[in-house]
Design goal:
Elements: E1 3-7, H1 16-27, E2 33-37, H2 43-49, H3 58-66, E3 76-77, E4 82-85, H4 91-94, H5 98-103, H6 106-115, E5 121-125, H7 132-139, E6 143-149, H8 155-166, E7 175-182, H9 189-202, H10 215-222, H11 235-250
Parallel strand pairs: 1-5, 1-6, 2-4, 2-5, 6-7
Antiparallel strand pairs: 3-4
Bound molecules: adenosine-5'-triphosphate and magnesium ion.
Magnesium ion binds at residues 16-17, 39, 43, 125.
């Protein structure tokens, strides 16, 4: 049985897509991973597949769900261990479409239920807007991971985010895997101070690992290659690898003996 994780923050540009991408690339070395691109910008789809015109994508699949004609979902296979359900710009239409809105949480329930048996981990790259798509996905995932920027971090904003999340109707408790700082500059006193404050306020919710800014992030995206494929020194890649290990350590209910692909 797989673990489902939404990567979300209602702030834009904090690294949701970059995190989804790099955790998926790291975990797919050992586990069978599906990523679902829920963002109309489809940046994740473009980076991983090289284009954004997939005939079968999240929009067409969700449309089939509401018209009760969903057959077997066949994600795009990027490798044996990494698959994607591509995003589409038409996802913006969903937020104003009354049929979709009335389907509410059932949308992602119907999408995820049959997929869970095929993957160890399912990651959802969420859009910023806290609308139908985000609520429906949050309602149906096991856990949430929250990237944040030290520059714009406030505990008040974070509490507000948790309040929003807790108001989404769910059958089971939402497990917050943690919050971590992306684009973090550990050599600046200001960022260190913010991290210390956040640690006091958030306790265990704050992940230890931070992610520095690194040009390798855009180099990798631009050339559609993995951040882990560089031979030269790649500190931001190391940060993401360590983050993937720390987050994995928090997936306490992942029983390794039940996984489809063994840890190497
Ligand atoms: N650690 C990093 N080092 C360098 N560049 C980064 C890093 N993290 C993110 N970026 C860059 O910052 C930009 C925003 O990142 P990203 O798209 O992952 O954020 P997002 O939260 O998904 O944004 P949106 O709210 O638009 O979906 C991108 O251009 C990405 O390449
Ligand atoms: Mg994004």
């Amino acid at each position: 049985m797989s673990r489902t994780i939404a990567i979300y923050n209602f702030k834009g540009g904090v690294g949701k897509t970059t995190t989804t991408l790099n955790l998926a690339l790291s975990w797919s070395r050992s586990f069978k991973v599906l990523v679902i691109d829920c963002d109309p910008q489809a940046n994740l789809t473009h980076t991983l597949t090289g284009h954004i015109n997939h005939k079968s994508n999240l929009y067409t699949i969700l449309k089939d769900i509401i018209h009760n004609r969903l057959g077997k979902v066949e994600p795009v296979e990027l490798s044996g261990y990494l698959h994607i359900i591509p995003g589409d710009y038409k996802m913006t239409n969903l937020e104003e479409n009354s049929e979709f809105i009335s389907f509410g949480n059932g949308l992602f329930y119907k999408l995820l239920s049959p997929l869970k048996q095929n993957y160890d981990l399912i990651l959802l790259d969420c859009p910023t807007h806290f609308g139908t798509v985000v609520k429906s996905s949050i309602a149906n995932v096991k856990s949430i991971l929250i990237p944040a920027l030290a520059d714009s971090f406030s505990t008040l904003g974070f509490r507000k985010l948790l309040t929003y999340l807790s108001e989404v109707e769910r059958d089971a408790r939402l497990n917050v895997l943690g919050i971590f700082f992306n684009l973090y500059r550990k050599n600046t006193r200001h960022h260190r101070m913010i991290k210390d404050e956040a640690a006091k306020e958030l306790g265990e919710l704050l992940l230890n690992q931070t992610i520095r800014q690194g040009i390798k992030v855009s180099e990798a995206n631009w050339s559609h290659r993995s951040i882990y494929s560089f031979e030269e020194k790649n500190e931001v890649g190391d940060d993401f690898m360590k983050l993937s290990e720390e987050v994995l350590g928090r997936l306490d209910a992942v029983h390794l003996d039940q996984l489809m692909y063994k840890v190497v």
